[in-house]
Amino acid sequence: MAYHPFRHLGLKFISVAIALALWFAVAGEEVVERSLRVPLDLHNQPATLELVDNAPTTVDVRVRGATSQLSQLSAGDVVAVIDLSAAKPGQRFFPLTREHVRAPFGIEITQVAPGTVLLTFEPSATRTVPVHPPHEGKPADGYEVAGWRSDPAEVKVVGPQSALKPLTEAITEPISVQGATRPVRERVMVGLADARLRLERPVTASVVIDVVATKVHRALMNVPVRIRNAGPRLSARVVPPVVSVLTEGPKNVIDGLRPDQVEAYVDLAHLGPGQYNRLSVRVDPQGFTVVRTDPATVRVNIGR
């Protein structure tokens, strides 16, 4: 097909006119400079090194461009980038020049401050530590926190060697035991108080805070000493016939305990007639613990 330079001549004139108008509009627009605070990105950090000190997150740059272009800049359009692939342990200076700043086409970078960034690196290390779930609040009256359990019980922590050395535990989100009368179970995130450290992988722990009735002591006086396993046609007399028993157990159990509810006894199995001066007093605990009896032994006279 033959080319006809004058075909659609009107459309061609219109296109040229629009292009010239745009060019004159841009060429005639004022060029200005502006100071910006832009993000600083750190790329290619070696996996074997840890950044010890907090690096600056922003730097100051001066940019030049048309007023319309600068007015349309949004957060993240201009970014300073430092390549850490050559980093080594210790303090290291990294240059920060105009070539390290990325900007949209048509925007010129005229200045960057600071011109260098000082960063400190340490070898990376790993350590396994126990998980400690803190609790907050108070259980109901007469109850207390007796302990806790976590699954997993330990986690692996990664970070600079100097920060790992004093680390003794990882923690979870606090668990409320306010007003509790039974064990509290929750699933919570595990974390670290030191921002320089991190978990090898995110961990959610299943935690049980054991809430139990508070244990108290109480001495019960005049507890009768009973006879057990006396032989056929034998009778026995206990001296003294009553003892005191020091008990320990949940407050709600111990507070309501009466002397006649305590099973104190002497066992006469395989004993014949006679006097036995030091037979041990035993107690069957029922929901409580026996700390001691006073006296601990009694005299028993066995007759026919």
Describe the structure.
With 304 residues, the chain is mainly beta. The chain folds into three domains: 26-114, Beta Complex (RNA Polymerase Alpha Subunit, Chain A, domain 2), CATH 2.170.120; 124-213, RNA Polymerase Alpha Subunit, Chain A, domain 2; 215-303, RNA Polymerase Alpha Subunit, Chain A, domain 2 (Beta Complex), CATH 2.170.120. It has helices at 9-27, 67-71, 161-164, 251-254; strands at 31-43, 49-51, 58-66, 79-83, 90-95, 101-102, 108-113, 116-132, 135-136, 143-151, 154-160, 170-172, 175-176, 184-191, 198-199, 204-213, 215-228, 235-239, 242-250, 263-267, 274-280, 282-284, 289-294, 297-303. It is rod-shaped and about 140 Å long. The mean pLDDT is 89.
Task: Detail the topology: elements first, then pairings.
Blueprint: H1 9-27, E1 31-43, E2 49-51, E3 58-66, H2 67-71, E4 79-83, E5 90-95, E6 101-102, E7 108-113, E8 116-132, E9 135-136, E10 143-151, E11 154-160, H3 161-164, E12 170-172, E13 175-176, E14 184-191, E15 198-199, E16 204-213, E17 215-228, E18 235-239, E19 242-250, H4 251-254, E20 263-267, E21 274-280, E22 282-284, E23 289-294, E24 297-303
Parallel strand pairs: 1-4, 8-12, 9-13, 17-20
Antiparallel strand pairs: 1-3, 2-8, 3-7, 4-6, 5-8, 8-11, 10-16, 11-15, 12-14, 14-16, 17-19, 18-24, 19-23, 20-22, 21-24
